[in-house]
Design brief:
The protein is an alpha+beta fold. The protein contains 3 helices and 18 strands. The strands form 4 sheets. It has a 6-stranded mixed β-sheet, with no helix packed on it. The chain has a 5-stranded mixed β-sheet with strand order 11-18-17-13-14, with no helix packed on it. The chain has a 4-stranded antiparallel β-sheet with strand order 10-12-16-15, with no helix packed on it. The N and C termini lie far apart (194 Å). Pfam families: Ig_3 (PF13927), V-set (PF07686).
Length: 305
């Protein structure tokens, strides 16, 4: 009985093997060996696609080297900073907090290394790093800006591959300008008011000195000077002949400006209406007095007296 069951089981096994082989022969799509090979090729293809995507991202980062690696810098590439001659310029370079590389600054026109980290690699002490740790700002500070400082500066991060952004510095020349120049005429006794405005200025001056001819008059009696962020006003309550002359507005960080002030006397030609009013008020009184004196002297001589 047991031998019969053995042959029966063997027949069933052969039947399933033959059935499987027949199905594989019909559609040609199934085979144990082919299936394992297909799965291996499929897994290899997926792995290749992942590596290909990583390679594409690296190429994109390398292509954007001049524009900075995405995610490394918070400061936009090609940022423009404007500073005036004699002023202070701060070129920003804010990096993401998860980057631990070293930041350095390079001047583009001569590829001169200016700073690495907090250290300055330049004999010119006008250049230094302004580091704000909690903001991750590694700004380049340039004091007493000169026209030759204008140009492109590169902030580099020592990542792999290296990343950088470019910041452009434009230098302007601030000028003082007095309203009403070159000549101003005022009447004696009236208020003298001079307004000095700053043009192309990027920062307020530390001081503005006013000169009458060659003497500084900011603290003279009767003179009031009011200073704003971009202007300075000089006032004299009552002008007289002593206020004639040249006035100069001289800010600490701008080209001075001058104006010539002419104080006019109150003569009959300058104020004819006022002079006419004075004559009309005095004449009747004088005529009345003379007429009274004449009549008092002639009354005894009249025939009816």
């Amino acid at each position: 009985m047991s031998l019969r069951m053995f042959w029966h089981s063997r027949s069933i096994f052969l039947y399933f093997v033959l059935l499987t082989y027949a199905l594989d022969s019909i559609d040609g799509s199934y085979s144990p060996k082919r299936s394992r090979s297909s799965n291996f090729i499929f897994r290899h293809r997926r792995s290749y696609e992942r590596h290909k995507n990583k390679s594409t991202m690296s190429n994109s980062a390398r292509a954007n080297f001049d524009g900075g690696k995405p995610g490394v810098f918070a400061t936009e590439n090609c940022t423009v900073v404007v500073a005036q001659i004699g002023g202070t310029a701060t070129l920003p370079c804010v990096v993401r907090k998860f980057n631990n590389g070293v930041v350095s600054w390079v001047r583009k026109h001569d590829y001169h290394l200016l700073t690495v980290g907090l250290a300055t690699y330049n004999t010119d002490d006008r250049f230094m790093v302004e580091h704000v740790r909690h903001l991750q700002n590694w700004g380049l500070l340039i004091k007493k800006v000169q026209p030759s400082d204008a140009g492109l500066y590169e902030c580099q991060m020592s990542t792999h591959p290296p990343s950088s952004i470019v910041v452009e510095l434009k230098v302007t020349k601030a000028l003082a300008e007095i309203q009403g120049s070159p000549d101003l005429h005022v009447h004696a006794g009236s208020q003298l008011r001079l307004v000095c405005a700053l043009r192309d200025s990027t920062e307020p001056p530390e001081y503005v000195f006013w000169y009458h001819d060659r003497r500084m008059i900011n603290y003279d009696p009767g003179v009031a000077v009011t200073e704003g962020r971009s202007s300075s006003v000089l006032q004299v309550r009552e002008a007289d002949k002593g206020h004639n002359g040249n006035y100069t507005c001289s800010p600490s960080n701008a080209v001075p400006a001058s104006i010539n002030v002419h104080v006019l006397n109150a003569t009959a030609e300058e104020k004819p209406a006022a002079m006419q009013h004075a004559n009309s008020s005095c004449s009747p009184t004088k005529i009345h007095i003379v007429s009274g004196v004449l009549l008092s002297g002639l009354l005894p001589l009249l025939p009816w007296t």
